[in-house]
Design goal:
Helices cover 57% and strands 0% of the residues. The chain is mainly alpha-helical.
Length: 270
């Protein structure tokens, strides 16, 4: 489940599901504009963990800038792995599926995003929206945009950011909700990687079976090959349908989709 479109759609689906199910809580009472900002951040953040791999598609999103950042992420991840591995962990090189694929990283990303937006919504939110818009576009349109099309990605991300912030009011953006959206996107990525053949060390540094980097995964019969037929014909389409359904429920609650009144979108609602 590690292809870009599936990861990006999983981030949107996770954000939509959380906000749709959070009726009575702050995340379930966001304005339509606030929800849209969170959707962009979560969709892009679902690609963020793969910045630990210099050869990943997402690492070429903004050309040399993200390639350089990817090398930094990879080096840090590799160093942390070597320092914290036990004798039971594999003696591997490289930092992919290391630090950025853990709940610790998701928590840090959540806190940092919240703090940055709280510092200054006037410049911080547009910058973050631009960055995560670029990741989202790269993820969803990775075949339309070859690996070296950083200029097209940058231009599209700028247009999306301008359109979103032109309609929304960034001064009223909920910083905590934005941070949670980024965390949700990261966790959606981990769950997607966990059902592939390699698994994902989500719970680091908690030792499991004497391994600090234990790859969380279901039984082998339930795992799938990245980019394989199951992902492309079953998981990807199912996530798309789920994302659209949950988004409709969440947006209907904000009053954006009044035409859906009377339609039982959410069977759990009273």
């Amino acid at each position: 489940m590690s292809t870009g479109p599936t990861h990006a759609m999983s981030g949107l689906a996770a954000w939509a599901a959380v906000t749709a199910l959070a009726e009575g809580h702050n995340l379930g009472s966001l304005s339509a504009k606030g929800w849209l900002v969170g959707a962009v951040l979560a969709t892009g953040a679902a690609l963020l963990p793969d910045l630990d791999h210099p050869e990943s598609t997402v690492s070429s999103t903004f050309g040399p800038v993200t390639q350089a950042a990817s090398k930094v992420f990879n080096s840090i991840s590799h160093g942390v792995y070597r320092l914290t591995r036990t004798k039971r962990d594999s003696n591997r090189d490289g930092g992919h599926r290391g630090l950025t694929h853990t709940l610790v990283f998701a928590l840090v990303a959540t806190v940092v995003t919240t703090a940055i937006i709280q510092t200054s919504r006037s410049w911080a939110l547009p910058v973050l929206m631009f960055f995560f818009s670029g990741l989202a576009v790269r993820g969803i349109m990775h075949k339309w945009c070859p690996r070296n099309d950083a200029l097209w990605i940058t231009g599209t991300a700028l247009l999306l950011t301008y359109a979103c912030l032109k309609w929304t009011d960034q001064t009223t953006a909920d910083a905590a909700a934005c941070g949670v959206a980024v965390g949700i996107g990261c966790i959606a990525h981990y769950l997607g990687d966990a059902i592939t053949e390699q698994g994902c060390p989500i719970l680091w540094p908690v030792p499991i079976a004497w391994k600090t980097w234990f790859p969380i995964a279901p039984p082998k019969i339930m795992r799938m090959r990245t980019g394989g037929r199951v992902e492309m014909t079953l998981v990807g389409p199912a996530l798309t349908v789920l994302a659209l359904w949950m988004s409709a429920i969440a947006l209907h609650r904000t009053g954006v989709l009044p035409m859906l009144d009377g339609i039982p979108l959410a069977p759990w609602s009273t």
